[in-house]
Amino acid sequence: MVYDSERNSKPIINGIRVDLAVLQAISHDCRPEICKNRTTCCIRYVPHVRPAKMEKIVGCFPVVANYTDNILEDDGFKNVFEEWEDGSYRIDADADEACIFTYTLSSGEKLCSLHSAALDLQLSPVAIKPSACSLWPLILLDGAYPELSVDKNWKTFPCNQESDDPNHLDASVVGIINDYFGSSFVEQLLRHAE
């Protein structure tokens, strides 16, 4: 395993610096019912996507439309993306400042229509959802080595708690990392976390 001597010996796995201490400090439990009537990650953040991911999202619009009409116009689908200076595309928000792909169940839970559409299409949600959404509450910071860390506002959301055992990675955090980076990445990470 490679370490970055300039950044407190954080391991570098597959070119990504990992802030293991911060990852071990969080316990995550994504249950939409605990976010009812609260600000959720789908309301607080506006994700950006690269062109390739935008094309995948647009390709799923017919299934996404089964969950939300926010993407519909009289003659088809809306353009819900705004081009950004860095070549990415910002996803629009609705009048309540929620991501345009958010929908609400009759019981009040807020869900992601991209996630639901991916499951309907028998795809991994990571294949369709923006990276920021797939990684939440983890983040990938830009730099010479991208750094896997935790969003600075993680404590303000009810799905996140301080870990009871900060010497081990929470199973949900491991699951997020596995879904996004794969099992080889997780195996390397867990070897270092021992």
What descriptive keywords fit this protein?
five-stranded mixed sheet, 2 domains, disordered N terminus, 31% helix, alpha+beta, three-stranded antiparallel sheet, globular, 194 residues, single chain, 9 helices
Overall description:
The protein has a five-stranded mixed sheet. It has a three-stranded antiparallel sheet with strand order 5-9-8. Strands 4-14 form a two-stranded antiparallel ribbon. Helices cover 31% and strands 22% of the residues. The protein has 194 residues and is α+β, with helices and mostly antiparallel strands. Helix 8 packs across helix 9. The longest helix is centred in the last third of the chain and has 11 residues.
Task: Summarize, please.
The chain has 194 residues and is α+β, with helices and mostly antiparallel strands. The chain has helices at 20-24, 41-44, 51-59, 61-64, 113-120, 125-128, 131-135, 171-181, 183-193, and strands spanning 2-4, 10-13, 16-18, 26-28, 48-49, 72-73, 76-77, 81-83, 89-91, 102-104, 110-112, 138-141, 147-150, 160-162.
